[in-house]
Amino acid sequence: MSTTSDPRDITRRRLESRREDVLALSHSLHAEPELAFEEHKSAKKIADLLEGAGFDVARGICDLPTAFSGTFGSGELVVGITAEYDALPGIGHACGHNVNGAAAVAAALALAPVADDLGITVKLLGTPAEEYGGGKVYMLERGAFDDVAAAMMVHAAPIDGLGFTSHAISSWKVAYTGRTAHAAAMPHRGINAADAMTVAQVAIGAYRQQMIPGGIVHGVVTHGGEAPNVIPGRVTADYDCRAETADDLHELKARIRACFEAGALATGADLELTDVGRDYADLRQDAEFGDAYRRAAEALGRSFDHVPSGMRGGSTDMGNVSHVLPTIHPSIGYDCGETIMHNPEFTRYGTTPGADKAVLDGGLAMAWTAIELATADTTRERLLTGVAGR
Fold it and tell me: Member of which family (predicted)?
């Protein structure tokens, strides 16, 4: 450990020296939003910045072209920081992933000059497709987190939050194939795929009274037919099932699958149910790890007093990571008026001074959290023992 300066001061100074680079990255990600598994420009922007800062960068890892890793230091305690950078169709960064990704980079850059003194390796993982597909799940399955002792990120939000959980989720593409026919001259010759979808939706609606507590099912019809005088021969939809735990999700999926099968049985249409990516598990945040983040964020003037008790977020593939290793996923807040996330109005606030401050505060709070994990003997031992025991 350096005896000339506190590592927190060093990280603060380093981040201040890279302030413009980090904020320019956030704004650039925001200006060029890319969808799940298509984030080629976004991944390159982050990887190039890390490489220019001396990180050892590996691109296209885990057989995912837009995934990457950037490491700095050689300590036995590997601290993982996950960067998200995918956007939403039609509404850009309405979930604030430009802030998420830039804050992760801020943390990694800030930690680099103290990594060896702390006995840590800083490992930033570029994780695509959080919104749709589950990049982190694929990366977890394919070894990207094998050496990571603890993983963290911050997520843009209207408020600062810590310790909340999330829903487990499974996503399906649904398709019914029937037979087209003239809707007036020979409707009896057709097999109505739209009716199959209607039966399924009615069945799901009827099931809601008996649905497992905390279960949520929602979807959109993406194609409903060609013309009113043609019996629809092909109807498609995207559907999500959410539950409070991964075990509950397994039960819920079986029942909702039966509802879709009922539509096929009632009409004679053929049913295709295709999984979209991987299922997301519920988020389990590590309490000791979270307390370290709280202390760091509060030292920067952040407050968690207004966070509702038992708050549950949407769904995140960070949940799967949290089932394997100590993880935190706090929200980093900034003023966004009366709007809510996943709304085009939220996108507008993604490059405001408040969002920029969230990037810097989130990055520095994560850096200070890593310092505490590395220097608290019992915590460090717990984390290293966890890696060894996997």
Answer: Belongs to the peptidase M20A family.
pLDDT, tens only, 330-371: 999 999 988 888 999 999 999 999 999 999 999 999 999 999
Strands 120-126 and 150-152 turn out to be: unpaired
Distances (CA, A) of 151 to 78, 145, 214, 378: 9, 9, 27, 18
Between 3.40.50.300, 3.30.70.360, 3.90.940.20, 2.20.25.90, what CATH number should domain 168-275 receive?
3.30.70.360
pLDDT in tens, 256-290: 999 999 999 999 999 999 999 999 999 999 999 99
Quick: pLDDT tens for 36-57. Answer: 999 999 999 999 999 999 999 9
Tell me how far apart the alpha carbons of residues 329 and 367 are, in angstroms, rounded to a whole number: 14
Q: Answer whether 7-166+282-388 and 168-275 agree in fold.
A: no
Cβ(370)–Cβ(120) under 8 Å? yes
Q: Is the pLDDT of residue 13 over 80?
A: yes
Strand partners of residue 170: 241
Q: In what order do the strands lie in the sheet with 77-83?
A: 56-59, 68-72, 120-126, 77-83, 150-152, 327-328
8 Å CB contact between 264 and 174: no
Domain ranges for the chain, please list them. 7-166+282-388, 168-275
CATH no., domain 7-166+282-388 = 3.40.630.10
Residue labelled with tokens 């509060």: 298
Which contiguous run of DSSP H or E holds residue 80? strand 77-83
Q: Is the pLDDT score of 3 beyond 90?
A: no
Residue range 162-171, pLDDT digits in tens: 999 999 999 9
What's the CA angle centered on 25, arms 132 and 363, to 5 degrees? 85
Lookup result for tokens 């003194």 = 117
- Contact predicate 79/111, CB 8 Å: yes
Q: What is the pLDDT of residues 308-324, one digit of tens each?
A: 655 677 899 999 999 99
CA atoms within 13 A on the CB side of 296: 30
Structure tokens at 5: 């300066």
